[in-house]
Amino acid sequence: MLKLLWTAPLSAKVGVLAILAYAFVALFAPLLAPYGETAIVGSSYELWSDKFVFGTDNIGRDMLTRLIYGARNTIGIAFLTVAIAFFVGGTLGMLAAILGGAYDMLIGRLVDILMAIPSLVFALLLLTVFGTSIPSLVLIIALLDSTRVFRIPPSAAMNVVVMEFVEAARLRGEGMGWIIRKEVLPNITAPLLAEFGLRFCFVFLFIAALSFLGLGIQPPLADWGSMVRETATLINYNDITPLLPAIAIAGLTVAVNFVVDWMLHLSSGLRSDSH
After folding, report:
1. Does domain 70-268 have CATH number 1.10.3720.10?
2. pTM of the predicted model, to two decimals?
3. Where are the domains of the chain?
4. Tens of each residue's pLDDT in the chain, 275 residues
5. Residue 236 burial (10 A CB sphere; 0-12, 13-18, 19+)
6. Which site in 154, 169, 228, 250 is 20 to 30 Å from 59, CA atoms measured?
7. Which residues sit opposite 61 in a β-bridge?
């Protein structure tokens, strides 16, 4: 893996380093943050200073601390959501590819119905009905995103399930789980990992958008989307503080896309001389 990364293009190396930096901040947030996540340590909207590097928010909480804890909350919840979406959508998709027939038609039509409804509108409706707790947020977005993931495994596995080694496994009497785990998954890992990165970006931005609208991660938990909303009034006074969480969101999205682009290039089998 290290040898592969060493030969990667500069953009991919930058992306990997940025992702590792974000992950480090998210994992060690309590050790890196100068104050507690919900601690009110000053007056509202204090200016940048030695005491408060990025000032304070609308109720006097340290912005640097909120940014650090926001990394843990936003990235962690987005990653968990995508993992659940991939497990549900990927499992249903591979079963549809292998079983085919009525099962494929039934699940496919159900997915088509869910995909026909705009995701943001559907999410707002479901969050209004079931509440905005973190479990509800994760499960609702994972359910909606699993419909997007559902189409990936069948298309990726279509050429694999007709191969001789899969047919041989069936003739040996191997179960469906064994075939998926041992024969299909290893041969479609690269496109699935690339899609995981793309879906992470979409879910990450989706959660930030919901938080900006007030239906995402709820106070007093720190979240980059809600931080933009809480400090938006400072834009009127030529203060760039509201841009800090927006830059953090954009930075992680760009970094993940750099790595995904590299992975897609690797899975395509194209030469990398131009890189």
Report:
1. yes
2. 0.83
3. 70-268
4. 567 777 778 888 899 999 999 999 999 999 999 999 888 998 888 889 888 999 888 888 999 999 999 999 999 999 999 999 988 888 888 777 777 778 878 888 888 888 888 888 888 889 988 988 899 999 999 999 988 888 887 777 777 777 788 788 888 888 777 877 787 777 777 777 888 888 898 999 899 888 888 888 888 888 998 888 888 888 888 888 889 999 999 999 999 999 888 887 776 654 444 44
5. exposed
6. 250
7. 40
